[in-house]
Amino acid sequence: MRIDLHTHSTVSDGTQPPAEVVAAAVEAGLDVVALTDHDSAAGWGEAAGAARRLGITLVPGAEISCQWRGVSVHLLSYLHDPEHPGLLGELTRARSSRERRAERMVELIDADYALTWDDVAALAAPGATLGRPHIADALVARGHVATRDEAFTSILATGSPYFVGHYAPDPVVAVELVRAAGGVPVFAHPKASRRGYTVGDHVIEAMVAAGLAGLEVDHRDHSEPDRARLREIAASHDLIVTGSSDYHGTGKQNRLGENGTSPADLERIEAEGKGHVIRP
Ligand code: AMP
Ligand code: ZN
Ligand code: FE
Ligand code: FE
Question: Which site from 10, 29, 47, 185 is most exposed, i.e. has the minimal number of CB atoms within 10 Å?
Answer without folding.
Answer: 29
